[in-house]
Amino acid sequence: MQYIAPGATLGVMGGGQLGRMFAHAAQQMGYFTAVLDADADSPAGLIAHHHVRSGYLDEAGLAELARHSAAITTEFENVPAQALAALAKTRPVAPGAAAVAVCQDRAAEKAHFVSCGVPCAPHALIETAGHLAGIDVSLLPGILKTARLGYDGKGQVRVRTREELAAAWAELKQAPCVLEKMLPLAYEVSVIVARGHDGQVVHFPLQQNLHRDGILAVTQVPSPDLTPPVQQRAIEAAETIASALKYVGVLCVEFFVLADGSVVANEMAPRPHNSGHYSIDACDVSQFDLQVRAMTGTPLVAPRLHSPAVMLNLLGDLWFRHGDTEVAPPWDRILALPGTHLHLYGKASARPGRKMGHLTITGAMAQQARDTALAACDLLG
Ligand code: ADP
Ligand code: MG
Prior knowledge:
Structural class: alpha+beta
Catalytic activity: 5-amino-1-(5-phospho-beta-D-ribosyl)imidazole + hydrogencarbonate + ATP = 5-carboxyamino-1-(5-phospho-D-ribosyl)imidazole + ADP + phosphate + 2 H(+)
Oligomer: single chain
Bound molecules: adenosine-5'-diphosphate, magnesium ion
CATH class of the largest domain: Alpha Beta
Shape: globular
Domain ATP-grasp: 110-296
Order of helices and strands: EHEEHEHHHEHEEHEEEEEHEEHHEHEEH
Binding site for ATP: 106, 145, 150-156, 180-183, 188, 211, 266-267
CATH architecture of the largest domain: 2-Layer Sandwich
Number of strands: 17
Organism: Piscinibacter terrae
Pathway: Purine metabolism; IMP biosynthesis via de novo pathway; 5-amino-1-(5-phospho-D-ribosyl)imidazole-4-carboxylate from 5-amino-1-(5-phospho-D-ribosyl)imidazole (N5-CAIR route): step 1/2
């Protein structure tokens, strides 16, 4: 692919916060940006040079995005793969439709992990009543997850017995699902890699992630529990997974680490990831910078963590800590703490569970970042 120099316009499918941070990185490097998102107030649409307000499958909208853009990426993993395939007829699209399609389906994703020799949780596909009846009880207790369109713990039910499993499948409207055995997690990490058109792969340091109610709450780098063998296994696995997909762009692979140190792939996202937001403030190149570099054929460079960091997700719940009236947290007091970096996504109203922004806390030492994060949590209420 030919290198696309600053001054060109880069397009992104989806206008959420990931698209907004992508646009910020692209603009910093001197690119113009175009966003396709139906929502007039989408976080990325608000700050892009061009906002195409259309659905992902709208032919006129896709043609307009292509007209503006020298190359196109995606920020939302559920952009229909056929929309990316249609765009790819006239413009370089990274990541490509085929790789995104694998990430959109938990069954295909797990099959890909297995084909790469990367362990994943014991699981079975449930698409019919026959599959449900034939489930091996060794998968219980387990988690039933819709094969498609799940995120932030949505589309998941924890089940202990066959009866609960049957009720959960009914609750999920008998959509195609994957039943996964519940694993005893010691901790969770993710690996973000970027891969270029030329096959070069670079990775971020591993981040350790804490989820609350299925939603990422806290990311710490360096990971406090990580051991060198776990780190090596996870990085090798993520790089193999990306290369086998001939992936171009930024890919995040989430891993479970079990008590015996074994590393199990959970899922992957074909885009920058919430667990990599710290890279904006704590690394010399961020995950969004690498997304821009990969799609434009700019050489990739290995990111260097220059400060230990803690990232706190800011969910809409924080705006309702005093009751039903929406009140923003005391940003002035929080920003008085050294090393705090506030990122708000420009969403007009807060709702419980809605990702409103994140706070990255950097420090000279990991303990210092942790202490400041605790002080920030006190102020967040
Ligand atoms: P989502 O797409 O919503 O992020 P995940 O499959 O990553 O869905 O699940 C969300 C979280 O639920 C995980 O990060 C982990 O904390 C927990 N979880 C998911 N699958 C399992 C499992 N098989 N065993 C134990 N915990 C799990
Ligand atoms: Mg997940």
